[in-house]
Amino acid sequence: MQPKKYRKVNTLISMIKVIFVVATAFILAGYFAVKIYLDDLPPIPQLNKYNRNIVTQVFSQDGHVIKTFQTFHYQQVSINEIPQYLKDAIISTEDKNFYAHEGYDIFGIVRSIFVNLINKKASQGASTITQQLARILFLSNEKTFTRKIKEIQIAARIEKTISKDKILEMYLNNVYLGAGSYGVGAAASTYFNKKLSQLTLAECALLAGLPQAPSVYSPFKNIKLAEKRRNKVLKRMYIMKTISKKQYEKAIKEKIVLNKSSNQSNTNVAPYFIDYVLKELENLGFDETEISQGGYKIITTLDYDAQVAANDAINKTLAAWNLKKPKQNAALFAFSPTTGAIIAYCGGKNYSQSQYDRITQAVRPPGSAFKPVVYAAAVQKGWMPNDPVEDTPVTIGKWSPHNYGNKYKGKIPLYKALAISSNVVAVKLIKDVGVGPVIDLAKSLGITTPLTHDYTIALGSNGVKLFDMVILYGTFANGGYKVQPYAIEKIETQRGKVIYEAKRTKIEKVLDKNTAGVMTAMLRKVITNGTGRGADIAKPMAGKTGTTNENKDAWFIGYTPDIVTGVFIGNDDNYSIGLTGGSAPAKIWKDMMKIATAKYGSPEFDYDPVDFSISWQEVPISENENQDEESENSDGENTIQETILNNESNDKNPDYDKTKKEIDSFKAIPPQMSVPFDEKLLRASIKEKEKREKNRKQDKPPVSDETVIIPEI
After folding, report:
1. Is residue 112 within 8 Å of residue 124, measured between CB atoms?
2. Quick one: which H or E segment has residue 571?
3. CA–CA separation, 341 vs 302, rounded Å?
4. pLDDT tens track for 177-236
5. Do residues 328 and 577 lie in contact, with contact meaning Cβ atoms separated by under 8 Å?
6. DSSP character at residue 2
7. In terms of DSSP bridges, do strands 328-335 and 564-571 run parallel, antiparallel, or are they unpaired?
8. How far apart are CA 611 and CA 609, in angstroms?
9. What is the set of domains in the chain, with CATH numbers?
10. For labelling, which of 158, 526, 589, 638 has a CA lying 20 to 30 Å from the CA of 275?
11. More confident: 668 or 121
């Protein structure tokens, strides 16, 4: 007789066997029930005479069509005209059992369900070529379980109606392959300027890799990613033995030669914006093929007149400054600081020359355009616009900071230091406030790129994105709220049914209203009396210029109560562009904002001004001061690394207490970005502020977080 524990084990095994048998029986019963149902479905009448879906259109918020997803290039070809390499590549990539199944793959669907459940996302699909054709020809693009069932039903009917070769032919004639091309015939012409019969094995594999994500794998946009995808297709063909090892090895070495005369690029008024819209649609669950063939009406936030004005301002201004080379580029991004609606979006001057988006992809030093973050941190600590600061040279170790032209103004009010973009004052402020708090504030205001923990960030030494900087300035414009930009207002089907409508954009309180108001008050002086005079549009506005070492990057970011706009100009190869932020960038900003703000009138910022007396005779800002101070080139040779290593007073500079490993990771910073610190001055200033606050409390109620101090000039 078996021991009790063995009897329990045997009982458990028996139960598992019973469960397995019952589950298998249910699965088989379900499978055969589905198969019988699908086998009974009727064919699709006159399928050969099918006409393509109506196209998707993208609209600006004021009703202009800014993009039509239609047949930019379409060539009907027969199955006999399609190279065998291309047919094999498509089947290997999209549906290896194409000639064996009946339009659907039940076990493939079950497998994908398990994989997706394990990964907790839709990481694997199971659509056969026939199912994809069913979706292209007959179905809406909603990602629902019922849509999947309909897709299988129609696929089964297609298989009963036409032959496998005809299915493959229709699929290859209708599948969207990017760059406005529908079908392999059009794609061969668009990408390679060839007929199908002239395509090489490698070129066939490249086209076969596109259906999954045409814009992602487009060789026009990312040739390295397209090559990687092509080689993956070739490997699958080799594994499935449709090509030999020798053919595989030769094909993966073939250089991609594209059609240079292709008119493939979006020629609409906002091509970079359309790319952003596509990404937003993908985040909402749409893929590019569904978008292009779904017959949708996509209503965006774009202001058509503002976008046209932005395009014109960039092209005319760059031409006037003789910046006509492809590498000499500019970008402009504008959005509403209150709603988040994107108003204008120019990722470059010529989309056909470069699809690189300098708004969201480029990471460039902002120069003095970053200084408002330091000033905002100082205001949070208690600094006021009229507090005195010493605009005087300072040397630390072997490193000396310089203002533009080695010009220094002595004792000046804080707001004037920002208006003339004093380097030494900005670094004195970060020394007083601390590097850590400035970095923390920058991140909370919207900066997503890494910031090095040293004083040079006060002068904009670290790379940032234009997208992030515009969001950051938006917090000053709307009372301290950070608003996330968005592009799509609404999506309607071809029958007018609304399937998506933008909800309230993400809004986060990151700055107290008093600090935002003080920053706006000081930044207004930058335009009316400082480095940003070239941007003046004669209405309430605020902003800041930025220029980096050797004039490699030129920025202007400014705002009215209704629109925040940032402009960047620079060489894509990072060589000197020869401009300051107060020149061409300010001009572009001005020309665009005149048009964009016309419909809003001239509203004032929603801040309550509080009079604040100036205790000394203010010296007017002269014309020769209106330059970006940070663009000065000094004759020093030390980098930030050398300065830190040579500084023997690290106990007095805790922010410089870095390990050798951290120091070696720093990028070399130009010597003019040195770190001044006048402890005596700052202590005197703090005492003066304490005295003033004490007197104020005796005379009248303290200033609340809701009040704003606007300096008088």
Report:
1. yes
2. strand 564-571
3. 8
4. 988 788 999 899 889 989 999 999 999 999 999 998 898 899 998 999 999 999 999 999
5. yes
6. -
7. antiparallel
8. 7
9. 73-263 (1.10.3810.10), 315-709 (3.40.710.10)
10. 589
11. 121
